[in-house]
Specification:
Elements: H1 2-9, H2 72-78
Protein name: Multicopper oxidase type 2
Organism: Penicillium fimorum
InterPro entries: Cupredoxin
C-alpha cells in the first residue's frame, strides 16, 4: 500500500491516457476508474476525476468496492445490476 500512496501523491497535474496500439474508428475503449475505496486506506474522492477531449463518452455503471473482474464483459455477466447499458449517463 505504501507504493500506491507514493504513486498517488506524485501524479503529474495532467495525465494523458493512451491505448497501447491506438484506436480504430468505430471501436470502443473501456476506461475503469477506481475511486474512494482502497483496502486498509482512508476513503478518498478526487475533486475532478477526469476531463476528456472527445465527442463521446458514457458512464455505463457504478458500484461499491474494488473492480475485481478482468473485463467489463465478465463484470456485467456476474453483476448486471451495476450497469446501465440501455440508458447510459
Amino acid at each position: 500500500m505504501d507504493y500506491f500512496r507514493q504513486w498517488l501523491n506524485n501524479l503529474e497535474p495532467q495525465v494523458t491516457i493512451q491505448t497501447k496500439n491506438g484506436t480504430w474508428v468505430g471501436t470502443w475503449v473501456d476506461l475503469l476508474l477506481q475511486l474512494g475505496e482502497v483496502p486498509n486506506s482512508p476513503a478518498t474522492q478526487a475533486p475532478h476525476v477526469m476531463h476528456r477531449h472527445s465527442n463521446k463518452g458514457f458512464i455505463l455503471g457504478v458500484g461499491p468496492g474494488l473492480f475485481k473482474w478482468p473485463s467489463t464483459e465478465e463484470a456485467y455477466a456476474e453483476r448486471p445490476e451495476l450497469f446501465q447499458l440501455k440508458n447510459p449517463r
